[in-house]
């Protein structure tokens, strides 16, 4: 049961007192009748307070697994976020931590790579199903506002080249790929709770990822500036590709920032 703030409890008691006085001025003024009025109106008021408390708790019971610390800031206070560091093992640890903290729904949130050439950078991805290593997981797209792509795929390694993206698209029919959603789906299935995906494309199907992009994240989900700088110094020809990736990633983050989280309760 949610805690009842003292201010609300005081309001309930004052209202009951007012109704008691009001009941003495008209109708049946017997003690039994007044007590029935007080109990009836009190139940309604207390249920309203409890329902409000439950709605607040429902918001906090949504756990959101993100890869980047910057992605957690895009949630604008929605739910409880845990950073997985952009890799499956970290995402699984983050999801388990959220479930053990009491959430009753998991969401995989962040950036993704495009596999379908028709899906452009910045596109919102809310799939109805997810494939990982032959296993098929059903998501709950209606909770997130409705399906925008039928299927996504989760892999253990970054799909970096256009050739590999095209092959994975032919093999799975998935519109996009990421590293974390599979781990989140497995944890949700293990604990028997609903699971949704909300992501945006930052890396289209027709682009090879530059080498520096593969070194960008550390295990805490922060950008490793020195690793990226070192990669650029070793291979300065990738600067153009990095700038294009940064532009498309900004479009994807803007999509996620504008995403309207469902109202709870």
TrEMBL record:
<dbReference type="GO" id="GO:0019284">
    <property type="term" value="P:L-methionine salvage from S-adenosylmethionine"/>
</dbReference>
<keyword id="KW-0378">Hydrolase</keyword>
<dbReference type="GO" id="GO:0008782">
    <property type="term" value="F:adenosylhomocysteine nucleosidase activity"/>
</dbReference>
<keyword id="KW-0326">Glycosidase</keyword>
<dbReference type="Pfam" id="PF01048">
    <property type="entry name" value="PNP_UDP_1"/>
</dbReference>
<dbReference type="InterPro" id="IPR000845">
    <property type="entry name" value="Nucleoside_phosphorylase_d"/>
</dbReference>
<dbReference type="InterPro" id="IPR035994">
    <property type="entry name" value="Nucleoside_phosphorylase_sf"/>
</dbReference>
<dbReference type="GO" id="GO:0008930">
    <property type="term" value="F:methylthioadenosine nucleosidase activity"/>
</dbReference>
<protein>
    <submittedName>
        <fullName>S-adenosylhomocysteine nucleosidase</fullName>
        <ecNumber>3.2.2.16</ecNumber>
        <ecNumber>3.2.2.9</ecNumber>
    </submittedName>
</protein>
<dbReference type="GO" id="GO:0009116">
    <property type="term" value="P:nucleoside metabolic process"/>
</dbReference>
<dbReference type="GO" id="GO:0005829">
    <property type="term" value="C:cytosol"/>
</dbReference>
<feature type="domain" description="Nucleoside phosphorylase">
    <location>
        <begin position="153"/>
        <end position="208"/>
    </location>
</feature>
